[in-house]
Automatic annotation (TrEMBL):
CDD domains: FYVE_WDFY1 (cd15756). Positively regulates TLR3- and TLR4-mediated signaling pathways by bridging the interaction between TLR3 or TLR4 and TICAM1. Promotes TLR3/4 ligand-induced activation of transcription factors IRF3 and NF-kappa-B, as well as the production of IFN-beta and inflammatory cytokines. It is found in: Early endosome. This is WD repeat and FYVE domain-containing protein 1. GO terms for biological process: positive regulation of toll-like receptor 3 signaling pathway; positive regulation of toll-like receptor 4 signaling pathway. It comes from Copsychus sechellarum.
Length: 410
């Protein structure tokens, strides 16, 4: 059912502490129980399970509950031990877990959506249950009465959600690649702005209320940092994953961003340095270096009796250039490019060797990751995915462990 992994700590690498197996289908969500050696999982096999670490060092299920529909999302509030499970049929079910984590009592069902629930957030202060779904909407319901307070519809599936509890602002990512910022009221809401920058569907969001930064991961393999507090819009583009970014977590104490991708990639980004914003791509009818016409510039092609060239863009300066003027490739981590990208020849000459030093560390999770959650106070991370395996990691070798960072020894 569960197997303990004995792994020697290696310098600057996540340490795999345990591998938990038992689900019969993809694991949709996994959450570490704060201050406990336990994890809660929800799966497409319609089960929700609470696993506790036994004296043997292995994790065994203390609660095994079967739902009416596949489990698609989950939220857990530790102080009140209330758990909310979103399902494929659109309903969200609330349970209360006993103090010893050996019993789970049903509280109520919320008819939140008409289709698969994609994300859930519980706000204790307002007693709101906020959720998004594949019925293209965000809904917020009263947890006291179980009644619907409000709904707002989008043009695409709502795929992920973050919420600022103090200001009642919700961030909703959708399958069109757009992020909508909403101000929620008791029975209504207003759209503040929409953020557009990704070329693929939004798969994950993380809101840091301290620095007022929003991070978004997408199926275009990239992460964008949005400066919401400074009202600057997109400020940083991070490219280092080879597959869609499925989960992100910003550690405010150490100024590090942890991200996971579908191919098992785990990246830890150093955000405690002054980075450069990637330039907007410039448009031109001819190469901005050699002035040769691009292939759609019929007039200049005719006047100069030349064949038009294909347009490219330098990732460092943003200029529109032809292939002959951008023959080089280079990484440029300070701008978020951990891979080699196209740069014009003059920009390539300006990049020093030290400018190519990576500002992130990359690790192999060795399983499909569709969801990740961290217990930042203990430096622990849990990952799960379509391979039905749940992995618990010690991230302190990578993200730091000291009193200054807030991590405590376990």
């Amino acid at each position: 059912m569960a197997a303990e992994i004995h792994s020697r700590p290696q310098s600057r690498r996540p340490v795999l502490l345990s591998k938990v197996e038992g689900h019969q289908d993809a694991v949709s969500a996994a959450l570490l129980i704060p201050k406990e050696d336990g994890v809660i999982t929800a799966g497409e096999d319609r089960t929700i399970r609470v696993w506790l670490k036994r004296d043997s060092g292995q994790y065994w299920p203390s609660i095994y509950h079967t739902m009416a529909s596949p489990c698609s999302a989950m939220a857990y509030h530790h102080d009140s031990r209330r758990i909310f499970v979103g399902q494929d049929n659109g309903a969200i079910m609330e349970f209360h877990i006993s103090e010893d984590f050996n019993k789970m009592n049903f509280v109520k069902t919320y008819p939140a959506h008409q289709n698969r629930v994609s994300a859930i957030i519980f706000c204790l202060a307002s007693e709101w249950l906020i959720s998004t779904g594949h019925d293209k909407c965000i809904s917020w319901m009263c947890t006291k009465s179980g009644s619907m307070l409000g709904r707002h519809y989008f043009t695409s599936w709502a795929s992920c959600l973050q919420y600022d509890h103090e200001t009642q602002h919700a961030f909703v990512g959708d399958y069109s690649g757009q992020i909508t910022l909403l101000k929620l009221e008791q029975n209504t809401c207003s759209v503040i702005t929409t953020l557009k920058g990704h070329e693929g569907s939004i798969t994950s969001l993380w809101w840091d209320p301290v620095q007022r930064l929003l991070f978004s991961g997408a199926s275009d393999h990239s992460i964008i940092m949005w400066d919401i507090g400074g009202r600057k819009g997109r400020t940083l583009l991070l490219q280092g994953h080879h597959d869609k970014v499925q989960a992100i977590c910003y550690i405010q104490l150490t100024r590090q961003l942890v991200s996971c991708s579908a191919d098992g990639g785990i990246a830890v980004w150093n955000m405690d340095i002054s980075r450069e914003e990637a330039p907007q791509w410039l448009e031109s009818d001819s190469c901005q270096k050699c002035e040769q016409p691009f292939f759609w510039n019929i007039k200049q092609m005719w006047d100069t009796k030349t064949i038009g060239l294909r347009q490219h863009h330098c990732r460092k300066c943003g200029q529109a250039v032809c292939g002959k003027c951008s023959t080089k490739r280079s990484s440029y981590p300070i701008m978020g490019f951990e891979f080699q990208v196209r740069v014009c020849d003059s920009c390539f000459e300006s990049i020093k060797d030290e400018d190519r030093t990576s500002l992130a560390t990359f690790h192999e999770g060795k399983h499909n990751i569709s969801h990740m959650s961290m217990d930042i106070s203990r430096g622990l991370m849990v990952t799960c995915g379509s391979d039905r395996i749940v992995k618990i990691w010690d991230m302190t070798p990578v993200v730091g462990c000291s009193l200054a960072t807030g991590f405590s020894s376990r």
